[in-house]
Amino acid sequence: MLKALLKKQIIEISSFFISGKDGKRRKPMAILGIAVLMVYVLGASGALFWLLSGALCEMFVATSLDWAYFALFGAMSTGFGVIGGVFMAKSKLYEAKDNEMLMAMPIPSWAILFTRIIGVYAVTFLFEALVFVPAFIHYFVIVGFSVKVLALGLMVIFVMPLGAVAICSLLGFLVALLTAKLPYKNLWTIVFFLLFFGAYFLLYSNMETFIEYLLSNGEAVGKTMQTALYPFGQLGKAVTGEWLSVLLFLLIFVGLFAVVYTVISLTYFRIATMKTGERRPKYKEKKAKGSPVTFSLFKKEFWRLIKSPAYLLNASMGTLIMLIVFVMALVQGDLFGMTSEMMDAIPALGRALPLLVAAICCFLGGSNFVSATSVSLEGDSIWLLQSMPVEEKKIFHAKIALHFVVTEIPAMFCLVEFSILLKLSVWYALLAAVTMTVFIMLCACMGLAINLKMPNLHWTNETAAVKQSMSSLVAMLGAWGVVLLPIGLYFAFGKYLPAWGYMLLWLGVFALATAAILVWLYKRGARIFANLK
Fold it and tell me: Around Cβ 526, how many Cβ atoms within 10 Å?
């Protein structure tokens, strides 16, 4: 039975490479394209930590604090793993759509829990490897190769995620327990996420100060690792070959995972099947009010977004980031350190200022992929929409409108604020606003078209349809590419056109592309939607 559950888990993880339309594996070139894209994204993320480790490794090695170097990056990678897996743990362990079906079978709850935790381990391992592996390789570049350090480092890389998995599972357990008891379950889930994300964003915003402190206080960092962060101190010493520390490291990380797993397994069945504290709606007799079809469909899409934490917090992450950037720019009085005086001092940047303001807002808005998951989230019940006496284009309008509203409002607030801070003229601010608005409409239409071509209707949890969807990744990266292309071309050929002329040119391109995608949606896209199953 455990073997069958493990096979099911592997199929779920590998579903990223499987077409959602007919369940058949994608064509080899499509799989190759996905693999290249993933390697690029992972490589870009790992490059950041490669640069950071390069700045710190020589300093720690020069002061004979090799173990503190590994301890520091062990702590950082564990934190990164927790951030990557904490909310997946809750949805994966306690909110999977097939939980009740599996628990109705003669399958021990510990076996179901164990196979689900493997999925959480895979995610945390990936996030931690992005941090620790570049630092590990950089150590060999600075110090030289060592077979003992290599063997012990590989052991640490595979065991270390157990600590993050234990923390993620424990936090997921606590959040599931609290939200099951409290009313308005989804609201509390969103509040917990916002608090967690706010703390992470605060830490990230102070990263430069943190790095400067590390560079000038290596010995103090070593003392902290030996006391307040004792487990990671033992991790660092384990990598450098202290055998007692190897045993202590294994005891701490494996032991923590074993304790948390035991606690969760004892209550897993009860919490996973617990009735939530949502209030039951009271029946009130009243006359029904009619409303236009498109507005009714929009309300349906809107309430699905609001009531699904996985959908809201992932597909509209760009909205959350824009709100945070808006507040930070308001408090600091500048835009990422840029001021109008700086723009005046650098003529090239000053000429490109309207384009940069529009590009920043478009880039942040392009982080949303609401429409790119809206079809997949219909899931097995997509037949309900297909059987309604409603034209497909009205269904598309509702999905596009939701993406547009969720993105356009915060983006417009940011653009107005940035224009004021950088003293942009009214004409350029209006032109940037129109360009940004057309771009957001382009992203909404493009995301829907991509999701129609790459749907995932056979998911066991909404998180899989949102976070593990090929359409969401392609839509987000595609939107970023559409933003970066004009910027790159402007610095190469902008001398031939003034900024307003260049923006008008791309405004026309965005408008034509949007119109072309809408025509495709109304014709080919409508037929694809009608035949999805």
Answer: 17
Rounded to whole angstroms, how far apart are CA atoms 339 and 185?
43
For the record, the structure tokens of 481 come out as 């590419």
> Strand, helix or coil at 335?
strand
The tokens describing 129, both together, are 């490897």
pLDDT (tens digit per residue) in 265-313: 777 766 666 555 445 555 565 665 656 777 888 888 888 888 777 787 7
* SS3 assignment, position 456: strand
Give the separation between CA 496 and CA 398, rounded to whole angstroms: 41
Residue type (1 letter), 97: K
Q: Which amino acid is it at 436? A: M
Q: Catalogue the long-range contacts made by 116-119 (C-beta closer than 8 Å, 24 or more residues apart).
A: 116/9, 116/92, 117/93, 117/165, 117/169, 117/261, 118/6, 118/9, 119/9, 119/12, 119/13, 119/88, 119/92
Domain boundaries along the sequence of the chain: 25-272, 294-530
Of 426, 225, 186, 142, nearest in space to 306 by CA: 186
Q: Which amino acid is at 474?
A: V
Distance between CA 388 and CA 172 in Å, rounded? Answer: 38
Token digits for 315? 């597909």
| Tokens found for residue 100 | 């009740």
Give the model's confidence band at 217: pLDDT under 50 very low, under 70 low, under 90 confident, else very high.
Answer: low
Which helix (H) or strand (E) is 130 found in, with range? helix 109-143
**Which are the contacts of 384, defined by CB distance < 8 A and separation ≥ 6?**
378
Q: Please say whether the beta carbons of 165 and 117 come within 8 A.
A: yes
Measure CA 2 to chain center. 31
Q: pLDDT tens for residues 431-485?
A: 999 999 999 999 999 999 999 988 888 776 777 777 767 788 888 888 888 888 8
Residue from 183, 152, 136, 154 nearest 246 by CA:
152
3-state secondary structure 87-108: HHHHHHHHCCCCHHHHHCCCCC
Residue 381 CB neighbours (<10 A):
10
pLDDT at 131 over 90: no
Q: What is the DSSP string of 57-87?
A: HHHHHHTT-HHHHHHHHHHHHHHHHHHHHHH
- Match 């073997």 to its residue by tokens: 3
Query: Taking the complete model, does pTM exceed 0.70, yes or no?
Result: no
How high is the mean pLDDT of the chain? 78
